[in-house]
């Protein structure tokens, strides 16, 4: 042998049913460059050489080779049963204390949908080797992994779980991978009081303590992206987002969690779309509902379909931000896919600027944690153990740090339970599937785990899920650039360099809607106000004229007090034009209801005075002068107080109705919204026109009552005017002019009321139509009633300055003429009767002569 010959004397006792014996070993430490020397077998026993022929046994045994002592008959080995060849050419010391083994039942998917075991199993074995060598962690125990290939198939996993549970030795912990398998194992484990620690399960459904009471995982839940997304939404002041998801359990539960988190943060999900295989309709709905900030949850294959439709709908660019999952391949959008009809250039254009969130599975900092390895040193050792395999072709390579830290989390937790169990008189090796106390201690230890691992800081939340960092990246120029990361354990959002949006400021979360009130055209308002002011001035002139000449006989016979009421009512109606044109441009919102009241009361009372006084005249003329001939002699003298009382009744009706309206359902300001309009030059803004109205809760009901009552008066006025068009009386000498005014007012009012209701959304047209109708009605009324009187007095010189005697004489003469006229009429009737009697007598005489 290299290094010279060696003689090694070893004594291992094989005793019958002995539990303790003295083992004496005499050996010489000599270093060999290629292995270890042969060891003598124990007395009453032998050595089993695994995998070697008799010729190979006489040679130097290789490094890491293990021999096994055996006994003959009924004797048993006292002491270590297996020895291992060390690199320094010696065998493991038989004097070292024997360690008790704790077994871990593991399921590593070496094939199937997610072959994560290809890298996760070597990583777990690396961790086990280091843990078992540590003297400060489980010094009296050795962890051993018993594993099977689950193929990421729940059906296969069911069979393997049965084998693990019903085959010796007892497993103290189960370590499954793959979400579907972990769901099965975690749900069944509580029946055997087993802790389940998963290294590769991301389904949000597993974060359910009622369903999975003993489940932990070092792989963060898929919902871990959501706190990061919410932090970004708040950072960039987005309060409205949209979502589109592939219809699978993992994405549905992730989106449900996101919906709850954004609701708590005061953020609204305005659009929520889903699809099974074809995303075309869902993407069109996002476009139609003006989605801007969009969270996409789908697998990589479907992502290509989505963004092909995104390109077709032009749902990309600086106005839009897409949030995607970060575990796609870096060139996922450049991979040719026969299921889409978009080119690589089109896909590259559509995905530009999207943001990804990816769970950090490898500590980005150079920190030595519990295993005394940095993340880069771990990668180097893992690559060595994989034998140079391509990481991209090795399943679970990204998750390997999670499997490594899962073993360390378990080892540290078991180490933490040794003291509490010893205080209770228990040991870890006493565990069995009926022992809840040991399970509870392991649960408490895992639940309070906190250490630095190669995947980052390891800590579990209340649901047993890993709290980790999330990396934030944005696609710029065809490659991903880091924006920052979110530390879930501390709740910190950190940035790489500048924390501003890469390339430009973040876009708005929706089309900016600028609310703009529509105000009345000031030119129109001023023009109409001038005409209204002139009308009021004209009304003052007419009123002054009528009062000044109230003792003139011709004015007296026109019932001047009623004409005065007409003039005052016309001026009040004209005054209503001013509040009709006042809007939010002139007064504050708090003052606007007062303006509404002025509109209503001025117009209502003005109409009652002006139209009511004219209606009273025409009604009295019809009542007195359309009686039957035999009752004409019984006509009474005109009593003015009855006319005034009639106007008063109409006025009281209006006052009461308006008071009831304002007490029961007062007018207030309402805002009408119109279809949004896109201004020129800025496609990301919309103008929403607003218009203020005076309204009440039951506006249509009140308007129906008022319009119905006023409409009946207008129709009745037209009828009375028509009936009395041929009547002539000196008591009301201007009733024909009143009838003409009633015609004009009625026609204008009946046209204006419905038209203004139709044009209520067009402030200029509505105001112009209503105000001009008022102005024309007033002008016509004043001109028809007062101008002829002015003309007559001017042309005939009948002024109040004339001598009163003349007026009295004229009045007496006129009264005598009227009495003579009536006397002549009576005499005429008497003559007609006499003539009739004479004609009848002559007719009788004629018949008598003919008979003779």
TrEMBL record:
Q: Where is the composition biased (Polar residues)?
A: 804-815
Give the transmembrane region(s).
Answer: 524-549, 561-580, 600-620, 641-664, 701-722, 742-761, 767-787
Q: Name one Pfam family in it.
A: ANF_receptor
Q: Which GO terms describe its biological process?
A: gamma-aminobutyric acid signaling pathway
Q: Which residues form the G-protein coupled receptors family 3 profile domain?
A: 531-809
Localization in the cell: Postsynaptic cell membrane
**Example GO molecular function:** G protein-coupled GABA receptor activity
Q: Which Gene3D superfamilies match?
A: 3.40.50.2300
Where's it mainly located?
membrane
- Which keywords annotate this record? Cell membrane, Coiled coil, Disulfide bond, G-protein coupled receptor, Glycoprotein, Membrane, Phosphoprotein, Postsynaptic cell membrane, Receptor, Signal, Synapse, Transducer, Transmembrane, Transmembrane helix
Instruction: Answer yes or no on keyword Ribonucleoprotein.
Output: no
> Which InterPro entries would you find in this protein's record?
ANF_lig-bd_rcpt (IPR001828), GPCR3_GABA-B (IPR002455), GPCR_3_C (IPR017978), GPCR_3_GABA_rcpt_B1 (IPR002456), Peripla_BP_I (IPR028082), Sushi/SCR/CCP_sf (IPR035976), Sushi_SCR_CCP_dom (IPR000436)
Q: Where is this region: Disordered?
A: 804-825
* Topology in the lipid bilayer: Multi-pass membrane protein
Q: Name one GO cellular component term.
A: postsynaptic membrane
| Family from the record | Belongs to the G-protein coupled receptor 3 family. GABA-B receptor subfamily.
Q: What is this protein called?
A: Gamma-aminobutyric acid (GABA) B receptor, 1b
């Amino acid at each position: 042998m290299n290094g010279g010959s060696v003689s090694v004397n070893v004594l291992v006792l094989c005793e019958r049913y002995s539990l303790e014996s003295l083992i004496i070993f005499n050996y010489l430490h000599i270093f060999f460059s290629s292995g270890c020397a042969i060891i003598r077998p124990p007395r009453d026993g032998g050595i089993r050489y695994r995998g070697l022929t008799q010729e190979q046994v006489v040679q130097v045994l290789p490094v890491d080779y293990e021999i096994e002592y055996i006994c003959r008959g009924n004797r048993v080995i006292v002491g270590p049963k297996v020895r291992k060849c060390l690199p320094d050419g010696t065998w493991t010391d038989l004097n070292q204390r024997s360690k008790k083994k704790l077994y871990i039942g593991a399921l590593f998917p070496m094939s199937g949908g997610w072959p994560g075991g290809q890298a996760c199993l070597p990583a777990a074995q690396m961790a086990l080797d280091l843990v078992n060598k540590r003297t400060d962690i489980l010094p009296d125990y050795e962890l051993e992994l018993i594993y099977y290939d689950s193929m990421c198939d729940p059906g296969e996993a069911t069979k393997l779980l049965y084998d693990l549970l019903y085959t010796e030795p007892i497993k103290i912990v189960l370590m499954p991978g793959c979400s579907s398998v972990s769901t099965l194992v975690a749900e069944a484990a509580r029946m055997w009081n087993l802790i389940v620690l998963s290294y590769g399960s991301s389904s949000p459904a597993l974060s359910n303590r009622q369903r999975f009471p003993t489940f932990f995982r070092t792989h963060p839940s898929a919902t871990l992206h959501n706190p990061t997304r919410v932090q970004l939404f708040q950072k960039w002041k987005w309060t409205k987002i949209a979502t589109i998801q592939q219809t699978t359990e993992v994405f549905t539960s992730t989106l449900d969690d996101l919906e709850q988190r954004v609701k708590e943060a005061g953020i609204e999900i305005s659009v929520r779309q889903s699809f099974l295989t074809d995303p075309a309709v869902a993407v069109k709905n996002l476009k139609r509902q003006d989605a801007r900030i969009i969270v996409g949850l789908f697998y990589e294959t479907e992502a290509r379909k989505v963004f092909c439709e995104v390109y077709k709908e032009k749902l990309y660019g600086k106005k839009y931000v897409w949030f995607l999952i970060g575990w796609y391949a870096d060139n996922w959008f450049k991979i040719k896919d026969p299921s889409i009809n978009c080119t690589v250039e089109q896909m590259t254009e559509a995905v530009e600027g999207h943001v990804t969130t990816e769970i950090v599975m490898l500590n980005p900092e150079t920190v030595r944690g519990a295993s005394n390895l940095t993340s880069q040193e771990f990668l180097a050792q893992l690559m060595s153990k994989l034998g140079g395999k391509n990481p991209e072709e090795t399943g679970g390579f990204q998750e390997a740090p999670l499997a490594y830290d899962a073993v360390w989390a378990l080892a540290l937790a078991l180490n933490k339970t040794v003291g509490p169990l010893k205080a209770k008189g228990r040991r870890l090796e006493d565990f069995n599937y009926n022992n809840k106390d040991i399970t509870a201690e392991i649960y408490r230890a895992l639940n309070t785990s906190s250490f630095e691992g190669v995947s980052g800081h390891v800590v579990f939340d209340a649901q047993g899920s890993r709290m980790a960092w999330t990396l934030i990246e944005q696609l710029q120029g065809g490659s991903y650039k880091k924006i920052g990361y979110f530390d879930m354990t501390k709740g910190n959002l950190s940035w790489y360099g500048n924390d501003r949006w890469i390339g430009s400021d973040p876009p708005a979360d929706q089309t900016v809607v600028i609310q703009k009130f529509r105000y009345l055209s000031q030119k129109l308002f001023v023009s109409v106000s001038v005409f209204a002011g002139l009308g009021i001035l004209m009304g003052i002139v007419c009123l002054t004229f009528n009062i000044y000449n109230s003792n003139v006989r011709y004015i007296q016979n026109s019932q001047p007090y009623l004409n005065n009421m007409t003039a005052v009512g016309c001026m009040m109606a004209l005054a209503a034009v001013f509040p009709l044109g006042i809007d939010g441009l002139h007064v504050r919102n708090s003052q606007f209801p007062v303006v509404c009241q002025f509109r209503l009361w001025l117009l209502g009372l003005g109409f009652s005075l002006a139209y009511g006084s004219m209606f009273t005249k025409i009604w009295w003329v019809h009542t007195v002068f359309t009686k039957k001939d035999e009752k004409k002699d019984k006509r009474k003298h005109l009593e003015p107080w009855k006319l005034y009382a009639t106007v008063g009744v109409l006025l009281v009706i209006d006052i009461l109705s308006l008071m009831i309206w304002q007490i029961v359902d007062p007018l207030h300001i309402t805002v009408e919204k119109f279809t949004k309009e896109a201004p020129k030059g800025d496609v990301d803004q919309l103008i929403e026109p607003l218009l203020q109205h005076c309204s009440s809760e039951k506006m249509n009901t009140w308007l129906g009552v008022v319009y119905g009552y006023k409409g009946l008066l207008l129709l009745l006025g037209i009828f009375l005017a028509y009936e009395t068009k041929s009547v002539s009386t000196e008591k009301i000498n201007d009733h024909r002019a009143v009838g003409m005014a009633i015609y004009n007012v009625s026609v204008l009012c009946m046209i204006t009321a419905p038209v203004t209701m139709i044009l209520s959304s067009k402030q200029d047209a509505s105001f112009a139509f209503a105000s001009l109708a008022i102005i024309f009605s007033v002008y016509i009324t004043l001109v028809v009633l007062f101008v002829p009187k002015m003309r007559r007095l001017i042309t005939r010189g009948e002024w109040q300055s004339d001598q009163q005697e003349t007026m009295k004489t004229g009045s007496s003469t006129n009264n005598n003429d009227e009495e003579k006229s009536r006397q002549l009429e009576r005499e005429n009737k008497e003559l007609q009767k006499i003539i009739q009697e004479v004609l009848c007598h002559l007719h009788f005489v004629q018949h008598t002569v003919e008979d003779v």
